Amino acid sequence: MSLLLDEIAVAAARLAEVGVDSPRADAELIAAHVHGVGRGELHRVPDADFDPRFWDEVARREAREPLQHITGHAYFRYLDLEVGPGVFVPRPETEVMTGWAITRLTEMDVAEPVVADLGTGSAAIALAIAQEVPRAQVHAVELDPLARTWAERNIASSSTSAPHMAGRVTLHGDDFARALETLARSVDLVISNPPYIPVGASVPPEVGEYDPATALWGGQDGLDAIRVVERVARRLLRPGGLVAVEHGAPQGTSVYWVFAEERGWRDTRNHRDLAGRDRFVTATWPGGPAD
Ligand SMILES: C[S@@+](CC[C@H](N)C(=O)[O-])C[C@H]1O[C@@H](n2cnc3c(N)ncnc32)[C@H](O)[C@@H]1O
Q1: CA 59 to CA 168: how far, in whole Å?
Q2: How many Å apart are CA 52 and CA 71, to the nearest integer?
Q3: For ligand 1, atom 18, which residue shows the shortest CA distance?
Q4: What is the dihedral of CA 70, 72, 74, 80, to 10 degrees?
């Protein structure tokens, strides 16, 4: 055993005691971040190089600050995104919905598919689509100015590190209820992970104290923003266009009915996340009156 591995074991026990979900992994990732090594290299850090700032960062996690705010990074599909105060930390469940969208876009017989990401936060969904669907043009809409600064930063750094992504994500500082008017009836796919938690629901401290309120709360039943996304998708999609919307695990049936045939939708489907919970709804817009 090395000093660092001993300290990690103590830190993991402390994190477990305060209810952190994955205490050992978090302790290791904090140690790797502080010592500037990969997680698989922790056993190689010499005792003399142990950095006591490890304990400052463990204390932050003990106070339930999200791991991603401590390291400054969130991984989303093949992206390494910068995150911190003021922006929603992208979640693994959203990777599944994004993967669905990427597959559909790749199958579409459209040279340069046009995508709208409503409520882009860190730009996770928008950038993943730009990265994995080479000719897609993505319009990312975000109302919150602070979240937008993180999106700008991630869009800029992806353009530098991957020149093929340059200019393919356009950020719009707007309310998605009225955004992208010039794109009416021309968008191939609308995707959104909107705020969907019912007001008053209890959430872990990492969420309630660190994710911005505009990213979380969706009104009495949690569906306020999802209803707006449904209306906006009807306005934006071209005939045959697709929509994908994330929701909370208990909301699958309610969201299915938001995208009802009576409103003109076809092929409405529920999809599960990797844990087998209802997580997103998709539907096809066959055309016809948008309102
Ligand atoms: C749950 S977060 C999702 C962020 C990102 N798409 C992701 O999956 O990580 C919802 C985002 O929608 C933004 N938002 C909420 N209401 C909005 C509105 N009416 N117009 C534009 N953006 C909105 C929030 O500020 C927040 O960044």
Answers
A1: 40
A2: 16
A3: 175
A4: -150
* 221 vs 196: CA distance, rounded Å: 8
The SS3 call for residue 290 is: coil
Token digits of residue 212: 């911005």
**Would you place residue 161 in the very low, low, confident or very high pLDDT band (cuts 50, 70, 90)?**
confident
pLDDT in tens, 188-226: 999 999 999 999 999 999 999 999 999 999 999 999 999
DSSP one-letter code for 217: B
| Ligand 1 center–CA 62 separation, angstroms | 27
Ligand 1 center from residue 177 Cα (angstroms): 12
pTM (predicted TM-score): 0.95
**Alpha carbon of 88 to ligand 1 centroid (Å):** 8
Q: Distance between CA atoms of 211 and 205, rounded to whole angstroms?
A: 9
